[in-house]
Specification:
By secondary structure, the protein is of the alpha+beta class. The chain has four helices and three strands. The chain has helices at residues 14-23, 30-40, 49-61, 85-111, and strands spanning 28-29, 65-71, 77-83. A three-stranded antiparallel sheet has the order 1-3-2.
């Protein structure tokens, strides 16, 4: 089985965090967000459209991102998503929580005796 076949699955809630983090760099359409996450993860994370668009809708409903129609680089109509002030605050909160969680898990894994 190749590394491509063994991509990591996203934990519940991590996709929202990754979308918010991606949008810190500026507005982006859905496919661009998915591509950025895949590229910055070293091709370890593949965001399926079936998960991406419900997550974008959820973040928009919460007021953490806004969306407007525009034209993509390949001249197609697309919705472009932008991080809101509330989204920036949420990104800081979620990043802190994620760092605490991973540190705690790291401590548990390090304490396991062989």
């Amino acid at each position: 089985m190749s590394a491509q076949d063994e991509r990591l699955e996203l934990l519940q809630g991590t996709l929202d965090l990754l979308i918010l983090r991606t949008l810190i760099f500026g507005p982006q359409h859905g496919q661009g967000i998915a591509r950025a996450i895949q590229q910055t993860s070293g091709d370890e994370l593949l965001v399926e459209h079936g998960a991406l668009y419900p997550a974008l809708q959820r973040l928009e409903d919460r007021g953490w991102i806004s969306a407007k129609w525009g034209v993509s680089t390949n001249n197609r109509k697309a919705r472009f998503y932008t991080l809101t002030a509330g989204g920036r605050k949420q990104l800081v909160k979620e990043t802190t929580n994620w760092q605490r969680l991973t540190a705690a898990i790291g401590r548990v894994l390090a304490s396991v005796e062989n």
